[in-house]
């Protein structure tokens, strides 16, 4: 049951400056969103526009408003002109956290504590930031020290779950997030992490429910709207996907991923979809993905295929008899084994090349590129990519640029929901690092 508002919202917006108590009052009492998500956003944007070149205490209010709109960089610009108090430092730290600048976030949280902010709340924030920065042991140690003072709070349980999730203990993390939501059903961070976990593990119905809960109160993070749009788009609910993306662009008009994804979704609205053909392709791909290790083969044939980096039936149908026979120790007997194996699945060597369904790829591993290993080790999650491209790379278990450039265009285009728009995006991002996808033979 919703609680009746106990705060005069117009009076709060009329104030010249805000404290953290004003922020918390707004979070608890702002009305729910319209289907387009404009009620809260329009209210905040109107308040932001009313303040021109704010200074001092007024700049604190504007910075908080921009933080609630997830305009973190512009919020930091306002805070740079603001009174140096605990609110400024606290929300400045939250902005840095939103921008993934965890070292700066830690510094600002420490400054907020020095200026009188609740030390327990600050330490919980610091534990979260350390976990996100990869300092999970430090985060757990800090959290353990807070158990007597904050062990029953939603924030404590959420951070504990976050550490578990980042350490690979997913089920334990889900339990912690659920408990945090029991204590505070409106606690957005726990709802988002739980939604994201459900999303990654195939429970889209629950993920949608939780993502939608995250939309009811600011700050509504971009990833909430992007992830929800991806689910809607994957299920053919293009209008809902467009609504999510337009809501994001209403607040952040220059958001690159949202702009790219919106074009992709709008193109899908006019795209003809042949369901029977899609099913045939899916069945065929399932066969081509079968590992050759699932079949009875001689040791010689198995070892040769392994050394040639041929792992699946799909790899075999992209390979010719001449390529196999040209490999050391691979003779006619091994060739007959392979051909008989493929025949049982209605396939043959070189079939993909003849049908033009695949671009031919080298069967031997690609040589290591002579490039800076530091660049190749760059995680793809640090590269500016659309949600669709990012999810496709996750499904292919591509974690670094070095792993990405071992793939051909055909490898990426074979991934579900990865189209020409995503391919062009990946090419452009690689070019910025002086890299490119592996060329087919």
Shape: elongated
Task: Tell me the total number of β-strands.
Answer: 0
Distance between the termini: 63 Å
- What number of domains? 4
Report the portion of residues in β strands.
under 5%
How helical, in percent, are the residues? 55-70%
> Poorly predicted ranges (pLDDT <50, ≥5 residues)?
33-38, 356-372
Please state the structural category: mainly alpha
H/E order of the elements? HHHHHHHHHHHHHHHHHHHHHHHHHHHH
How is the biggest beta sheet arranged? none
Number of H/I helices:
28
Oligomer: single chain
How big is the Rg?
26 Å
Average pLDDT reading = 82
Could you characterize what this model shows?
- It is elongated, with a radius of gyration of 26 Å.
- The longest helix has 14 residues, at 119-132.
- The protein folds into 4 domains: 1-97 and 105-114, no CATH class; 118-220, Serine Threonine Protein Phosphatase 5, Tetratricopeptide repeat (Alpha Horseshoe); 275-355, 5' to 3' exonuclease, C-terminal subdomain (DNA polymerase, domain 1); 373-432, DNA polymerase, domain 1, CATH 1.10.150.20.
- It has 28 helices and no strands.
- 63% of the residues lie in helices and 0% in strands.
- With 441 residues, it is mainly α.
- The chain has helices spanning 9-14, 20-29, 38-49, 56-68, 72-79, 86-98, 102-114, 119-132, 136-145, 147-150, 154-166, 170-183, 188-200, 204-214, 222-234, 238-251, 256-268, 275-288, 299-307, 313-317, 321-325, 332-343, 351-355, 373-376, 387-395, 401-404, 409-413, 420-432.
């Amino acid at each position: 049951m919703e609680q009746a508002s106990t705060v005069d919202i117009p009076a709060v917006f009329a104030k010249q400056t805000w404290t953290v108590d004003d922020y918390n009052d707004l979070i608890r009492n702002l009305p729910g969103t319209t289907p387009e998500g404009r009620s809260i956003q329009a209210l905040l944007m109107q308040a932001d526009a009313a303040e021109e070149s704010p200074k001092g205490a007024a700049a604190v209010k504007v910075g908080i408003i921009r933080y609630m709109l997830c305009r973190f960089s512009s919020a930091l610009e306002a805070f740079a002109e603001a009174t140096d108090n605990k609110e400024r430092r606290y929300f400045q730290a939250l902005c840095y956290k939103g921008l993934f600048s965890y070292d700066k976030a830690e510094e600002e949280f420490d400054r907020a504590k020095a200026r009188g902010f609740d030390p327990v709340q600050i330490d919980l924030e610091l534990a979260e930031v350390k976990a996100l920065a990869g300092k999970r042991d430090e985060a757990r140690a800090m959290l353990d020290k807070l158990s007597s003072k904050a062990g029953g709070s939603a924030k404590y349980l959420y951070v504990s779950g976050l550490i578990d999730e980042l350490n690979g203990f997913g089920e334990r993390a889900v339990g912690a997030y659920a408990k945090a939501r029991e204590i505070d059903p409106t606690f957005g961070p726990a709802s988002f992490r739980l939604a994201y976990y459900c999303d990654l593990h195939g429970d889209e119905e629950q993920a949608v429910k939780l993502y939608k809960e995250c939309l009811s109160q600011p700050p509504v993070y971009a990833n909430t709207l992007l992830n929800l749009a991806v689910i809607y788009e994957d299920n053919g609910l293009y209008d809902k996907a467009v609504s999510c993306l337009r809501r994001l662009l209403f607040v952040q008009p220059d958001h690159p991923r949202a702009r790219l994804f919106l074009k992709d979704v709008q193109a899908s609205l006019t795209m003809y979809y042949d369901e029977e053909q899609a099913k045939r392709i899916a069945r065929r791909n399932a066969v081509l993905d079968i590992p050759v290790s699932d079949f009875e083969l001689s040791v010689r044939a198995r070892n040769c295929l392994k050394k040639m980096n041929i792992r699946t039936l799909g790899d075999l149908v992209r390979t010719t008899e001449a390529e196999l026979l040209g490999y050391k120790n691979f003779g006619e007997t091994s060739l007959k084994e392979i051909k008989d194996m493929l025949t049982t699945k209605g396939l043959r060597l070189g079939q993909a090349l003849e049908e033009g369904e695949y671009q031919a790829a080298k069967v031997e591993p690609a040589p290591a590129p002579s490039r800076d290993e530091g660049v190749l080790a760059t995680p793809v999650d640090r590269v500016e990519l659309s949600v669709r491209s990012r999810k496709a790379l996750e499904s292919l278990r591509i974690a670094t640029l070095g792993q990405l450039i071992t793939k051909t265009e055909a490898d990426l285009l074979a991934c579900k929901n990865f189209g020409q728009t995503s391919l062009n995006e990946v090419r452009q991002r690689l070019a910025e690092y002086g890299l490119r996808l592996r060329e087919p033979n």
